[in-house]
Amino acid sequence: MIKILLVDDDYLALEGLCQMLHWDDFNGELSGCATDGIEAISMIEDNPPDVVVADIKMPRMNGIELSRYLYENHRGTRIILLSGHSEFEYAQKALQYRVTDYILKPVTRQKIKELETLLMKIDRDLAAKKQIRRLAGSEALKDRLLSLLRRGDEKTVYDFLHDGVLAEALLHDTAGTLGSTLLNYTFAYQSEIGKDKSDLEELKKKSMDEYWRMSSPPERVSYLYSRCRELMSYARNRKSEYEQPIVAHCIQVIQNSFSDPGFNISQLADRANLSLPYLSTVFKQAMGQTISSYLSRQRLLRAQELLRDISIPIKDVCAQSGYEDPHYFARSFKKQTGMTPSEYRNLHSSRDLHPEQADKEANP
């Protein structure tokens, strides 16, 4: 709902406006009626409206003075002035106060339709601004864009920017804030795929400068899409070049760290300076298994190796294999081998003591 304050020193004119306006058509709600600018200011301070519709000629404080007050104190409130032909040149003075529009008196049914059209547009603009604020602060929006960039599907990214709620918000984003937020997210992805940080800072500054030189929302959306396309193309060309070193680095880190019970895959992603979802995708594509599976496998192999040495207590095997909780270690070990750590030790220590018996069992 948009809240509307009507201001006119002619009570009958106020009553006529209230009765003739089709409030539901522009999602409007009457926040009050005032008979001059002074009374209007008092009401505005108590309950700021979205729109003020005011006569230009009133005692004590006229419509232009009220426009100035709103410009200086309530920039978010729109104002529409009602003026006669003889007052129109006088009304031009209010242009500096960002008056939304003028409706020439007398206020006929046709003028009422013009006013309603203006109010419908204001309602759409305000709804879009709320949507822009909501989207610009949404972590889900960032996750969605990064997910699409990782997939590298240009058509899906195009649809994301040109269709639906986001596209509607971007086309109303005259300030450019939502688009600049999305452009910023593309640099988060460029950092993720290993672009040099010094180059990235220079590219970011250049891209932002170019973005803010765009004069309209459609131009900015087009620029944003072109940057996404360039980025996806870069990622495709560099894929084999940067992914193999990433995987090799991860394997090395896991080999050096898996025996530390505090080590986990989130720490691995931090050390690689990559997001965990992206790192997981790259690792699985290269190794055919998840990072968690690979880490668990290394810990299991280490545990099996240590269990063969009966001089090492099982609780130490647990700790040296990277497990913090002995009970979890026992459950995990049995799930992967079908035996408890004790059963595995008994079986393999027996084979070490009687290798000829183990050979007979292996070759009956």
Number-wise, the strands total: 5
| Global outline | elongated
Strand order of the largest sheet: 2-1-3-4-5
Topology as H/E string? EHEHEHEHEHHHHHHHHHHHHHH
The N- to C-terminal Cα distance equals: 85 Å
Average pLDDT score: 83
Oligomer: single chain
Radius of gyration: 34 Å
Which blocks of ≥5 consecutive residues have pLDDT under 50?
353-364
What proportion strand?
5-15%
> What fraction, in percent, of the residue positions are helical?
55-70%
Secondary-structure-derived class: alpha/beta
* Alpha plus pi helix count: 18
Largest sheet: 5 strands, parallel
Walkthrough of the structure:
With 364 residues, the chain is of the alpha/beta class. It has helices spanning 11-20, 37-46, 63-73, 88-91, 109-136, 139-151, 154-162, 164-171, 177-192, 197-213, 217-257, 265-272, 276-287, 291-307, 314-320, 326-337, 341-353, 355-362; strands at 2-7, 28-34, 51-55, 78-83, 101-104. The chain has a 5-stranded parallel beta sheet, with helices on both faces. The longest helix is centred in the middle third of the chain and has 41 residues, at 217-257. It is elongated, with a radius of gyration of 34 Å. It starts with a strand and ends with a helix.
Summarize the structure.
This protein is of the alpha/beta class. It has helices at residues 11-20, 37-46, 63-73, 88-91, 109-136, 139-151, 154-162, 164-171, 177-192, 197-213, 217-257, 265-272, 276-287, 291-307, 314-320, 326-337, 341-353, 355-362, and strands spanning 2-7, 28-34, 51-55, 78-83, 101-104. The protein is elongated, with a radius of gyration of 34 Å.
